[in-house]
Write a structure and sequence with these properties.
single chain, 175 residues, alpha/beta, seven-stranded parallel β-sheet, globular
Length: 175
Protein backbone atom coordinates (compact mmCIF):
# COMPACT_ATOMS: atom_id res chain seq x y z
CA UNK A 1 0.00 0.00 0.00
CA UNK A 2 1.40 3.38 -1.03
CA UNK A 3 0.77 6.90 0.15
CA UNK A 4 -2.96 7.54 0.41
CA UNK A 5 -5.04 10.66 -0.29
CA UNK A 6 -8.66 10.93 0.82
CA UNK A 7 -11.07 12.57 -1.62
CA UNK A 8 -14.43 13.90 -0.45
CA UNK A 9 -16.93 14.49 -3.26
CA UNK A 10 -20.49 14.46 -4.55
CA UNK A 11 -22.67 11.40 -4.98
CA UNK A 12 -25.26 13.18 -7.13
CA UNK A 13 -25.81 12.19 -10.75
CA UNK A 14 -27.35 15.62 -11.45
CA UNK A 15 -24.16 17.71 -11.41
CA UNK A 16 -22.42 19.45 -14.28
CA UNK A 17 -20.11 16.94 -16.04
CA UNK A 18 -17.15 19.33 -15.63
CA UNK A 19 -16.91 18.32 -11.97
CA UNK A 20 -16.60 14.64 -12.80
CA UNK A 21 -14.04 15.40 -15.51
CA UNK A 22 -11.96 17.37 -12.98
CA UNK A 23 -12.21 14.40 -10.59
CA UNK A 24 -11.00 12.00 -13.29
CA UNK A 25 -8.08 14.30 -14.11
CA UNK A 26 -7.18 14.51 -10.42
CA UNK A 27 -7.28 10.73 -10.03
CA UNK A 28 -5.04 10.25 -13.07
CA UNK A 29 -2.57 12.80 -11.73
CA UNK A 30 -2.48 11.37 -8.21
CA UNK A 31 -2.04 7.80 -9.42
CA UNK A 32 0.70 8.91 -11.84
CA UNK A 33 2.52 10.42 -8.82
CA UNK A 34 2.22 7.14 -6.88
CA UNK A 35 -0.73 7.90 -4.62
CA UNK A 36 -3.57 5.55 -3.71
CA UNK A 37 -7.10 6.96 -3.45
CA UNK A 38 -9.49 6.61 -0.52
CA UNK A 39 -13.07 7.74 -1.06
CA UNK A 40 -16.64 7.13 -0.01
CA UNK A 41 -16.78 4.36 -2.56
CA UNK A 42 -20.28 4.88 -3.89
CA UNK A 43 -21.14 4.12 -7.49
CA UNK A 44 -22.91 7.41 -8.29
CA UNK A 45 -21.87 10.96 -9.13
CA UNK A 46 -18.30 12.06 -8.63
CA UNK A 47 -17.68 9.10 -6.32
CA UNK A 48 -18.48 6.79 -9.22
CA UNK A 49 -16.31 8.83 -11.60
CA UNK A 50 -13.36 8.57 -9.20
CA UNK A 51 -13.79 4.82 -8.91
CA UNK A 52 -14.18 4.37 -12.67
CA UNK A 53 -11.05 6.37 -13.44
CA UNK A 54 -8.99 4.73 -10.72
CA UNK A 55 -9.83 1.29 -12.07
CA UNK A 56 -9.34 2.41 -15.68
CA UNK A 57 -5.78 3.58 -15.02
CA UNK A 58 -4.92 0.63 -12.77
CA UNK A 59 -4.61 2.62 -9.56
CA UNK A 60 -5.35 1.39 -6.07
CA UNK A 61 -8.65 2.63 -4.67
CA UNK A 62 -10.03 1.99 -1.19
CA UNK A 63 -13.79 2.45 -0.81
CA UNK A 64 -15.19 3.11 2.67
CA UNK A 65 -18.91 2.69 3.29
CA UNK A 66 -21.22 2.29 6.28
CA UNK A 67 -23.01 -1.07 6.36
CA UNK A 68 -26.40 0.55 5.74
CA UNK A 69 -25.15 1.48 2.25
CA UNK A 70 -24.57 -2.16 1.29
CA UNK A 71 -25.44 -2.57 -2.36
CA UNK A 72 -24.14 0.89 -3.32
CA UNK A 73 -20.48 -0.18 -3.34
CA UNK A 74 -18.40 -1.05 -6.36
CA UNK A 75 -17.21 -4.63 -6.29
CA UNK A 76 -14.20 -3.96 -8.53
CA UNK A 77 -12.20 -1.63 -6.27
CA UNK A 78 -8.98 -2.80 -4.62
CA UNK A 79 -10.53 -2.83 -1.17
CA UNK A 80 -13.93 -2.18 0.41
CA UNK A 81 -13.93 -1.22 4.09
CA UNK A 82 -17.21 -1.44 6.01
CA UNK A 83 -18.04 0.71 9.04
CA UNK A 84 -21.01 0.80 11.36
CA UNK A 85 -21.65 4.56 11.26
CA UNK A 86 -21.03 7.62 9.09
CA UNK A 87 -18.70 8.99 11.78
CA UNK A 88 -16.62 5.82 11.66
CA UNK A 89 -16.63 6.07 7.87
CA UNK A 90 -15.10 9.56 7.93
CA UNK A 91 -12.53 8.54 10.53
CA UNK A 92 -11.53 5.50 8.49
CA UNK A 93 -11.39 7.51 5.24
CA UNK A 94 -8.87 9.90 6.82
CA UNK A 95 -6.85 7.17 8.55
CA UNK A 96 -3.27 6.92 7.27
CA UNK A 97 -3.81 9.54 4.54
CA UNK A 98 -1.21 12.17 3.74
CA UNK A 99 -3.71 14.77 2.47
CA UNK A 100 -7.44 15.46 2.23
CA UNK A 101 -9.13 16.91 -0.85
CA UNK A 102 -12.69 18.19 -1.06
CA UNK A 103 -13.97 18.39 -4.61
CA UNK A 104 -17.10 20.41 -5.37
CA UNK A 105 -19.91 18.61 -3.59
CA UNK A 106 -23.00 18.95 -1.48
CA UNK A 107 -23.79 19.01 2.22
CA UNK A 108 -21.99 15.71 2.92
CA UNK A 109 -18.81 16.94 1.26
CA UNK A 110 -19.02 20.21 3.17
CA UNK A 111 -19.45 18.33 6.44
CA UNK A 112 -16.43 16.12 5.68
CA UNK A 113 -14.33 19.16 4.79
CA UNK A 114 -15.31 21.11 7.92
CA UNK A 115 -14.75 18.13 10.23
CA UNK A 116 -11.33 17.49 8.71
CA UNK A 117 -10.50 21.19 9.04
CA UNK A 118 -11.49 21.10 12.71
CA UNK A 119 -9.39 17.99 13.32
CA UNK A 120 -6.40 19.66 11.62
CA UNK A 121 -6.81 22.71 13.86
CA UNK A 122 -6.86 20.40 16.90
CA UNK A 123 -3.79 18.47 15.64
CA UNK A 124 -5.82 15.28 15.20
CA UNK A 125 -5.27 15.22 11.43
CA UNK A 126 -1.82 16.13 10.15
CA UNK A 127 -2.20 16.24 6.37
CA UNK A 128 -2.80 19.34 4.30
CA UNK A 129 -6.38 20.08 3.26
CA UNK A 130 -7.46 21.29 -0.15
CA UNK A 131 -10.85 22.41 -1.47
CA UNK A 132 -10.84 22.51 -5.27
CA UNK A 133 -12.34 25.91 -6.05
CA UNK A 134 -13.17 25.00 -9.65
CA UNK A 135 -14.94 27.91 -11.35
CA UNK A 136 -15.31 29.62 -7.97
CA UNK A 137 -17.32 26.78 -6.43
CA UNK A 138 -16.03 27.43 -2.91
CA UNK A 139 -16.18 31.25 -3.00
CA UNK A 140 -19.25 31.32 -0.70
CA UNK A 141 -17.35 29.21 1.85
CA UNK A 142 -14.33 31.48 1.59
CA UNK A 143 -16.65 34.44 2.27
CA UNK A 144 -18.07 32.68 5.32
CA UNK A 145 -14.54 31.98 6.55
CA UNK A 146 -13.68 35.69 6.08
CA UNK A 147 -16.78 36.55 8.12
CA UNK A 148 -15.60 34.22 10.90
CA UNK A 149 -12.26 36.06 10.98
CA UNK A 150 -13.84 39.53 10.77
CA UNK A 151 -16.09 38.80 13.74
CA UNK A 152 -13.27 37.31 15.81
CA UNK A 153 -14.81 33.85 15.84
CA UNK A 154 -11.82 32.23 14.16
CA UNK A 155 -8.18 33.18 13.70
CA UNK A 156 -6.87 33.69 10.18
CA UNK A 157 -4.18 31.08 10.87
CA UNK A 158 -6.90 28.49 11.41
CA UNK A 159 -8.69 29.47 8.20
CA UNK A 160 -5.39 29.18 6.33
CA UNK A 161 -5.30 25.45 7.12
CA UNK A 162 -7.47 24.93 4.01
CA UNK A 163 -6.00 25.81 0.61
CA UNK A 164 -8.31 26.63 -2.30
CA UNK A 165 -6.54 25.79 -5.58
CA UNK A 166 -8.60 26.82 -8.59
CA UNK A 167 -7.54 24.12 -11.05
CA UNK A 168 -6.62 20.46 -10.89
CA UNK A 169 -3.16 21.42 -12.15
CA UNK A 170 -2.65 23.84 -9.25
CA UNK A 171 -3.86 21.19 -6.83
CA UNK A 172 -1.52 18.53 -8.22
CA UNK A 173 1.48 20.86 -7.80
CA UNK A 174 1.20 20.12 -4.07
CA UNK A 175 1.88 16.40 -4.53
Amino acid sequence: MGKQVVIFCASSNLIDPKYNEAARKLVRGLHAKGYDIVSGGGDRGTMGAITDESIRVGGRHVAVLPRFMAGMERKDVAEVVWTDTMSQRKDRMRENTVAAIALPGGIGTLEELIETHTLRKLHKYEGPIYALNLDGYYEPLKSLFAHFVATGMTAQADIDLVAFPETVEQLLENF
